[in-house]
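Schema walkthrough. Field components (list of strings):
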Amino acid sequence: MSDFDLRTFLPYLLNQAAEETSLGFSRVYKDRYGMLRTEWRVLFHLGRYGDMTASEICRLAKMHKTKISRAVSALEEKRFVAGRESGTDRRREILTLLPQGRRAFDDLVGVAERHDRDLTANLSSGERAVLIDCLQRLAGFDKFPD
Amino acid sequence: MSDFDLRTFLPYLLNQAAEETSLGFSRVYKDRYGMLRTEWRVLFHLGRYGDMTASEICRLAKMHKTKISRAVSALEEKRFVAGRESGTDRRREILTLLPQGRRAFDDLVGVAERHDRDLTANLSSGERAVLIDCLQRLAGFDKFPD
DNA sequence: GCTTGTTGGTTACAAAAGCAACTTTTACCA
DNA sequence: TGGTAAAAGTTGCTTTTGTAACCAACAAGC
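Field assembly_structure (string):
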């Protein structure tokens, strides 16, 4: 055999933890609003950081632009999001939350906060701090503090 | 807006970290052996934990059985894996690594070990210990120490 | 002005994942 | 012993993702 352990191999471990922890939350936005993860992310970025274009979300969330494009279409279909032209550059479309989208966002942020509290409930505050810090470094958030 | 921060929300953070950290490694098994992540995982389980059936891998890796089924087919195609009948239960097929598969496994374990060392290079050993421990708990590895 | 390159975004096609139905074999139990 | 349920795997179909090509608008250089 070998003594290499999958259960301490970071890419695997992170992936399993990510899958496990997002299960409960993804069920909520899926069941309650028929959204996909990509849609939730776009919704979130608009709700949290204000109006922006697809490519800004692209850069912030490190999602591919085709995913964004499709997520935006779906959110427009649901009347959660609308786009308006940028005055200066007719290629750019500035995206905004519509009232429906804002309501969904507010609702889901509440769910997310509770979910996050539950997840970290059995972690000490010291552990939590180290965990978040390490994860942010691994995710590269320290390099791109956009 | 809202003061909820995506960059500390565990499901998101874990997902970004997982994506970021697995990028380099997945390129290796993809380019070098034309494997998918599912195939690497099956290969790994057989190489590390010895011969087993699809459903055992299923349970250990928490992967859906159709993914395993297809990954096994692909690995058989590559002559990395072969299945033999279990004597006692003709439904079960016990999977084994073939020499080619063993070589690929050995090679990839080396790559994985180096990759993991690189990833944790800027973490103190204390941080690393807390990180691994928290992730294992979040992934549920403490509950199913199979 | 023209031409070349770049950026924002969409679309078409191929690969992969998810889900449900199905086959075969085994286990249980009245 | 027969009948129902459950487990191991596979297959077909749908949804989602990935990739590359593409269009339109802008920018820069000459």
